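User: Here's a protein and a ligand (iron/sulfur cluster). What would the complex look like?
Assistant: Let me lay out the input and then the predicted complex.
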Amino acid sequence: MAQTKNSRSVAGNLTHPFLDEDGDTLREECGVFGAINADDAAATTALGLHALQHRGQEAAGITSFDGKDFISRRGLGQVAENFSSAEAIAELPGTMAAGHVRYSTTGGAGLRNVQPLYAELASGGFAVAHNGNISNAQMLRKELVSKGSIFQSTSDTEVIIHLVATSRYPTVADRLIDALRLVEGAYALVVMTPTGMIACRDPLGIRPLVMGKMGDSVLFASESVAFDIVGAEMIREVEPGEMIQVDFAGEIKSLHPFGNQRARPCIFEHVYFSRPDSFFAGQSVYEARKAIGAELAIESPCDVDLIVPVPDSGVPAAIGYAQQSGLPFELGIIRSHYVGRTFIQPSDSARHAGVKLKHNANRGLVAGKKIVLIDDSIVRGTTSLKIVEMMRDAGASEVHFRVASPPTAHSCFYGVNTPERSKLLAARMDLEPMREFIKADSLAFISIDGLYRAVGSKDRDNACPQFCDACFTGDYPTSLTDIAQTEQKSEELPFTDPPSSNTPPSKTKAA
Ligand code: SF4
């Protein structure tokens, strides 16, 4: 964003190859962190972002406020590539800071989209870090542009800034409420203004946001694990539709300006996105994953010698599956933790090599054995196929496959990178063709009701809380204005996905 007398930017890492690991996983697109009334706000924020690195690895940014100026350092690459040195942190003075990690799907996402985004408004500086995706951003953007707004980035988040800038309400908090009333979709926001920090979660609470404290500091983060890492205490989740304001005197105000709606947090946080050592929707993610595995074993037992997790994300579900079935849990696949992401090109041939670099069969264990592989989900199916083949090559006599989520048959429009629907295996095939595609001896997914049972409800119809489960059911909990408009223009129904407004292709290299 524009640099003015009250803001400055310091250069972060300006080049990064933007390479996808294998193109066959759903990816959370962002994580946010904020700290106010903290002696070392930027250092705390950098640590918090480290803990959220799994939510976005392609760019990281921190903006701090020193009582007079907003200072931003934003760069491409991981947190460690941008915020490891004492010098980098020293460039970000002040007792308030907000940070962001970002994942993007397309190769051209440049520095101009790296958050926090900053603008100088009539009310003063305004910095925002956003996790989620605004599903009417393109429509709003067109309207704003037609009225004279000039956008600096291609991020949907900038729409919020322009709506705040053009609101006629007197205070920045009221302007933000006014802006967010026009927005549909998912957002967990950490905002900085000259008078303090505002954290806000969309009315359905689709994306997570938690509040913590450390001495006199108040912290916000996408996941509770960030508080563990910085030594803070989690207070509670920011409630769906809640806006929390914290000022420099330590006063905390909570508002619910969007009325009461039934919350719909993303159930995929339990399945895959959140770290297992986080708490989400009132539950330990690790325990939820084990319960999902146990439910899967009840629904789809398998007469095998070994339960083998697809590392790392299949491990807790495989433990639950093994405990429920009474069969041995063994590490039949060993994952290398030293594979640099930059070794792997996002082409089909390199993706193939990528799986071999990352995963290797534990040949001495699986040879001659009947095994069941447990994974969190199947997206395109290409990785599942390679892992099944790897097990057969290592001598497994039978290779069965169990999946700790229902078939992923729909794209996500709430801030998660999903391949276009036509590339999702479950959108293209029924169960038996999917089994044939991945070459497993048998294949089963947990049912949607089984997933709800595992996270504490009787079934989906009687769920408390109800979750967003649209990537399994197609039941999207908000309007999808941009999609509806795209589909109207397209002849490619039913496999038309809108361009992700959060991560559009961009030829701009740096702001
Ligand atoms: Fe989560 Fe799926 Fe809903 Fe997206 S569509 S928010 S991944 S449950």
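Summary: The first helix runs from residue 41 to 51.
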